[in-house]
Specification:
Shape: globular
Radius of gyration: 16 Å
Helix content: 10-25%
Order of helices and strands: HEEEEHEEHEEE
Number of strands: 9
CATH topology: Pnp Oxidase, Chain A
Distance between the termini: 25 Å
CATH superfamily: Electron Transport, Fmn-binding Protein, Chain A
CATH architecture: Roll
CATH class: Mainly Beta
Largest sheet: 9 strands, antiparallel
Length: about 150
């Protein structure tokens, strides 16, 4: 996807928010306490402030998210990428209001509340968001810093 000129920040933010509200899956990168990297695709729901994910509590991703309380998320193809660094809140599977879990299940096609495997919710609040398509958009790719959208 080659553009004639880089998108202005306002357009990148719009495109990023559109992707967050429409896409269902993303890549979740974590690391173990001893530094072993781990990367998995997971489904998510975006409520306008944070991303909600669910994964088995005892999976490498679940353990890593709970230990580090931070994650990097990758959304979109490599020529239209959104990278999100976020703070992680771990919630027991029964901690959310029913409507929130129902929304996640409807959006993703999966309801972790019904699984025999113990799951946790992971609420990831973006602290930094980067978005770019081609090399001409590397400058100005930071859309959010310290949890605040940039003008």
């Amino acid at each position: 996807m080659t553009s004639t000129e880089p998108r202005p920040r306002a357009r990148r933010r719009h495109d990023t928010e559109h992707r967050l509200s429409r896409d269902v899956d993303l890549w979740v990168a974590t690391a173990s306490p001893d530094g072993l990297p781990h990367l998995v695709p997971l489904s998510f729901d975006w409520d306008g402030e944070a991303l909600l994910l669910a994964t088995p509590a005892d999976s490498p991703t679940g353990r890593n998210l709970a230990a580090a309380r931070t994650a990097r998320l990758g959304l979109g193809p490599t020529r239209d990428v959104v990278m999100i660094d976020g703070a992680v809140e771990v919630l027991p599977i029964d901690a959310l209001p029913a409507h929130r879990g129902d929304r996640f299940a409807a959006r993703t096609g999966f309801d972790p509340r019904t699984s025999a495997t113990p799951y946790h919710w992971f609420r990831i609040t973006p602290r930094r968001i980067l978005a770019w398509r081609e090399a001409d958009e590397l400058a100005g790719r930071t859309l959010m810093r310290d949890g605040r959208w940039l003008d």
